[in-house]
C-alpha cells in the first residue's frame, strides 16, 4: 500500500546518530587522556554509576570501560590528584559522594600519593573514607586553597574536623606510613580555634615525624652539621607544618646561620612558588616572606 511504502522510505531516510558510549573503550580512553586527572576520574565514575550509588555498596567496582579509562597511560598517573587542575565552578559543586566515587575509582588507597582539595569547599570529609589506612599517601592538602589564594573563611567551607580526624588517625597509626606533609584548613589552625581532639592528633603526628630520620636535603647549608628541627615543634602555633617543603616534600633543617629554614606566605599559607624554585634548594625560602604573586 501507499502507506507502507511511505513508512519504508521514511525508515531508510532516518540517520542513526551514534552516541559516545558506543565508542570502543580504547577510543574513550584516548580521548579522556587529554582531560585533567580529576575530570578523567569523574568521567570514569559516570561510566559506571552515579556518585551516590558508590556509597551503597562497600566495594563498588568500576565498570570495564571505567577501568580502561583509569588505567590508560603510565602506571603512576594517579600519584597526584590535584583539584586545582579543574574549573573552580566544578570543584565548588563536588560533594562527598563525588569524592568517594573518584577515590574508589582510581584505587586511591594504593595509588594516590598527593591529594590536594583546592576549591572543594562543599566537601564535609566523609568522601575521603577510601583513604582510610593508606600507606601510599605522602601529602594531603585540606586547606581548600590553591596557589596564591587566600584560604576559604569559616562560612565558605563545610569541611568537618569530626569527619576528617578519624581518617587521619587511621593513616598515622599504621606501621610503615608514608605521610610527610599535612596542610590543614585555616579554621582549624589557630591555637585558639584548635579543639582538644585536633591538639591530640597534632601531638601524635608530630611524634611520628620526629621518630623518622630527618634526612635533610643535601646542599642546603655550608657546614656538614644538620640542625634538624633544633628543638622546635614540627607544627607551629598556626597549625602549619614546618621543615618540609610543600613542593618536593624534602626536609630542610633549621640552620639559622644560613637562613634556610622554610617560611610561609602570609596570604596563601604555603611555600610560595617563587621560593620553591630556588634550588632543591627548591625547598628553601631565603629572603621571601610572601609570594610575589600574592603581593603582600
Structure write-up:
The chain is mainly alpha-helical. Helices cover 32% and strands 4% of the residues. The protein has eleven helices and four strands, in the order ααααβαααββαβααα. It has a four-stranded parallel sheet with strand order 1-2-3-4, with no helix packed on it. β3 (139-141), α8 and β4 form a beta-alpha-beta unit. The longest helix has 16 residues, at 196-211. The radius of gyration is 24 Å and the shape is globular. It starts with a helix and ends in a 20-residue tail after the last helix. Mean pLDDT is 75; it is low at 277-288.
Structural class: mainly alpha
The counted number of beta strands is: 4
Q: For the terminal residues, how far apart are their CA atoms?
A: 83 Å
Question: H/E element string?
Answer: HHHHEHHHEEHEHHH
Largest sheet: 4 strands, parallel
The share of residues in extended strands comes to: under 5%
Average pLDDT works out at 75
Uncertain residue ranges: 277-288
Count of separate DSSP helical elements = 11
Spatial order of strands in the largest sheet: 1-2-3-4
Radius of gyration: 24 Å
**Which quaternary structure do these chains form?**
single chain
How much helical structure, as a percent, in the residues?
25-40%
What would you call the shape?
globular
